[in-house]
Specification:
The chain is built from 4 helices and 11 strands. The protein is an alpha+beta fold and 209 residues long. Helix 1 packs across helix 3 and helix 2 packs across helix 3.
């Protein structure tokens, strides 16, 4: 569940960050100071509204209220699941984390829904000059078209998968890498199917070389 008003969302976001940084909830005065208001009465109303929406819980301790997040709602509102892109003629064995849906912060997809996206594991370093490395995870907005210069995931001739920049010239489509060690590849335009546009890159941290 999302807060019903922007002000309630501002209050909830501050409480979430404060608890993450300090391990306990902020006081009403601290919330008011953060929001730039002088009266705590308005903060009390927002807290009650969030409590009625089951987003926070107030507990009385030593004569005063403390705030707690209802974690199941907080997690559901900040995390979403993204399915992996189906790959043609996939030869490489998937990593264990590619066997389940990818969990990403919801802010990465903006106002769109998780169904508008898919995840793609980068297969080589052909886009290294665009700071996209082998084994990165690309968050792809599903689309069947692209503009010149867009970084896309595309299937060529129903079998080859590329993560390259897209350029169209009449009846031909160029898939251009960003690495001098790789050559651009040109296909008949009707032989290239754009799967989507790269919107974000996630980089798994490798503990061991």
């Amino acid at each position: 569940m999302q807060p019903r008003t922007k002000r309630q969302k501002d209050v909830l976001d501050f409480i979430t960050r404060y608890i993450g940084n300090h391990g306990n909830g902020p006081s009403y005065q601290q919330i008011a100071r953060h929001l730039g208001v002088t009266s705590k009465a308005g903060i009390v109303r927002h807290i009650k509204a969030l409590e009625n929406q089951d987003l926070v819980t107030r507990r009385r301790e030593n004569g005063s209220f403390s705030l707690m997040l209802n974690s199941s709602n907080a997690i559901a509102d900040t995390i979403c699941q993204i399915e992996w892109l189906d790959l043609p003629n996939q030869n490489a064995l998937p990593e264990y984390w590619e066997l389940i849906a990818l969990l990403v912060p919801r802010f990465l997809i903006g106002p769109k829904t998780p169904e508008d996206f898919c995840a793609f594991r980068v297969q080589n370093d052909s886009m290294i000059d665009k700071h996209i490395c082998e084994d990165d995870v690309a968050l792809i907005e599903k689309r069947s078209y692209a503009r010149a210069g867009d970084i896309v995931v595309a299937v060529a001739e129903n079998q080859q998968m590329f993560l390259h920049q897209y350029f169209r010239d009449g009846a031909k489509t160029e898939l251009r890498p960003a690495n001098p060690n790789y050559d651009s590849i040109v296909f008949p335009a009707d032989k290239v199917e754009v799967q989507g546009i790269v919107r974000s890159i996630l980089r798994p941290f490798k503990l061991f070389a």
